[in-house]
């Protein structure tokens, strides 16, 4: 430890463990979490808002729409997810090279430009192009924000701190559904979809400003040989009596990896890193193949096929957002005491059961009661997904990869997550049009296979530091 850092730690030891010091650290961590997770809020809003915009985009130009066909709707929706896939893998690599903080405020600029471009798009090709550009920011945020939070958090609250990003994602989706319904009901004018899309520019500005006030990840600083800066940040976000042990453990791990050189694609060929990356890819991709974003993107469309009108479907979709926010809030509480692997298995079981029941509702005669039964089982599906799987899989992706390739390996896994999203976003409306409710039976089979994968391969990460997990995986998978 440097002399200045040692002096800072010694000066604080007299106050170590006092309520004043704890309040100071908690306040700093709250500020970091609140600002950084605006990236999650934007992620959620930009992925959720399209569900309400699509019915208006399908209208003709004389009604302020772009006359989109079902195929074009799937392209508009999946163009963001394709951009997110590329943004994740590029963003993960850039966060290793230039830092987590710089990467996040760069994607804030892309969020702002993309939101304005989508809202002002004059035609279908321009909307697709700006949705793709916006997706670069969504992917970059999804690959970087959880890693940043994981590296900033003390081990005792790492699970809940990272899971707050998932809470902000579903809060963003809830805000999107709420603004969609409010604008559609209270201000039903031509070009209404443009107002839905432009709202995302406001939190993008907040994220850009806020990230300039936050510190860089101490683990990234250590990996760049900036030990003095690492000690300074740790002194900001840790109690005094925990700084030295954690700092020395980080530096020791950096020194162990320094002999191997800078992290690169070649490291993914190292047997144990390759195995844990493969598990991460499976975890990331299969969490999308639950079909959750098919329901989140196309909920109004699904409900319209059961007989509900456009405005009623948009209002009913708000329930999806409310249940998601409540479920994630409950899930964050579970993460404090329940092993990650158990969370995933419970959630996946609930997903399979809910999909079977959801598909079965489409076998009933068309009626208002059937519409609300479909909504009910959409909500049980979302509760299982958002309470148990949503917070946990993002957390595990931020935990399992070694420091030297954490951004890169996480970016690869999140790329696969978004490619799964692309498949779902593109296939879902076409499956609904072709086979209606049988779509949910298809996803039930996929998710039953996913349950087997989790039971066989998913590791446990609960209650261990990132450095101890890295040593454990190296020993286990070598």
UniProtKB/TrEMBL annotation:
Regions crossing the membrane: 30-54, 74-92, 104-122, 128-149, 169-187, 193-214, 276-299, 311-333, 345-365, 371-396, 408-428, 440-458
Write down the membrane topology.
Multi-pass membrane protein
Q: Which GO terms describe its molecular function?
A: transmembrane transporter activity
Major location, coarse class?
A: membrane
Give positions of region: Disordered. 1-20
UniProt-annotated location(s): Cell membrane
Q: Which InterPro entries match?
A: MFS_dom, MFS_sugar_transport-like, MFS_trans_sf, Myo-inositol_Transporter, Sugar/inositol_transpt, Sugar_transporter_CS, XylE-like
What are the entry keywords?
Answer: Cell membrane, Membrane, Transmembrane, Transmembrane helix, Transport
Q: Name one Pfam family in it.
A: Sugar_tr
User: Which residues belong to any copy of the Major facilitator superfamily (MFS) profile domain?
Assistant: 32-462
**What highest taxon heads this organism's lineage?**
Bacteria
Which NCBIfam families has this protein been placed in? SP
- Family (UniProt): Belongs to the major facilitator superfamily. Sugar transporter (TC 2.A.1.1) family.
Name the chain's protein: Sugar porter family MFS transporter
UniProt organism field: Actinomyces marmotae
């Amino acid at each position: 430890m440097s002399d200045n850092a040692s002096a800072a730690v010694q000066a604080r030891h007299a106050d170590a463990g006092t309520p004043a010091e704890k309040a100071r650290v908690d306040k700093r961590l709250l500020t970091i979490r609140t600002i950084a997770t605006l990236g999650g809020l934007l992620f959620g809003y930009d992925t959720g808002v399209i569900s309400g915009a699509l019915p208006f985009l399908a209208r003709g130009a004389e009604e302020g729409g772009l006359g989109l066909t079902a195929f074009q709707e799937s392209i508009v929706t999946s163009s963001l997810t394709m951009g997110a896939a590329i943004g994740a893998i590029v963003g993960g690599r850039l966060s290793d090279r230039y830092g987590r903080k710089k990467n996040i405020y760069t994607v804030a600029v892309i969020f702002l430009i993309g939101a304005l471009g989508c809202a002002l798009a004059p035609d279908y090709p321009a909307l697709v192009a700006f949705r793709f550009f916006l997706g670069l920011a969504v992917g970059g945020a999804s690959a970087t924000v959880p890693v940043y939070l994981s590296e900033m958090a003390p081990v005792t609250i790492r699970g809940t701190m990272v899971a707050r990003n998932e809470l902000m994602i579903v809060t963003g989706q809830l805000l999107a559904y709420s603004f969609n319904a409010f604008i559609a009901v209270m201000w039903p004018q031509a070009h209404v979809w443009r107002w839905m899309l432009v709202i995302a520019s406001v939190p993008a500005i907040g994220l850009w400003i806020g990230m300039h006030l936050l510190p860089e990840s101490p683990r990234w600083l250590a990996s760049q040989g900036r030990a003095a800066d690492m000690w300074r940040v740790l002194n900001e976000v840790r109690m005094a009596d925990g700084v030295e042990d954690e700092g020395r453990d980080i530096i020791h791990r950096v020194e162990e990896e320094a002999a191997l050189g800078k992290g690169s694609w070649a490291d993914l060929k190292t047997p144990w890193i390759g195995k844990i990356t493969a598990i991460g890819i499976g975890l990331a991709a299969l969490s999308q193949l639950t079909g959750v974003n098919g329901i989140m993107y196309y909920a109004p469309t699904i409900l319209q096929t059961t007989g509900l009108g456009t405005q009623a479907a948009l209002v009913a979709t708000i329930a999806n957002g409310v249940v998601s926010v409540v479920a994630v809030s409950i899930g964050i509480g579970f993460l404090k005491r329940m092993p990650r692997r158990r969370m995933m298995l419970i959630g996946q079981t609930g997903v399979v059961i809910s999909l079977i029941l959801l598909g079965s509702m489409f076998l009933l005669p068309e009626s208002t009661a059937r519409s609300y039964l479909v909504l009910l089982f959409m909500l049980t599906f979302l509760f299982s997904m958002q309470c148990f799987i949503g917070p946990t899989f993002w957390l595990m992706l931020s935990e399992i990869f070694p420091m030297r390739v954490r951004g890169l390996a996480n970016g690869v896994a999140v790329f696969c997550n978004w490619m799964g999203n692309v498949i779902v976003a593109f296939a879902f409306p076409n499956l609904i049009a072709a086979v209606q409710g049988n779509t949910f039976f298809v996803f039930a089979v996929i998710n039953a296979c996913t349950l087997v994968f989790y039971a066989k391969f998913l590791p446990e990460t609960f209650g261990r530091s990132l450095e101890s997990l890295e040593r454990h995986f190296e020993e286990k998978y070598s």
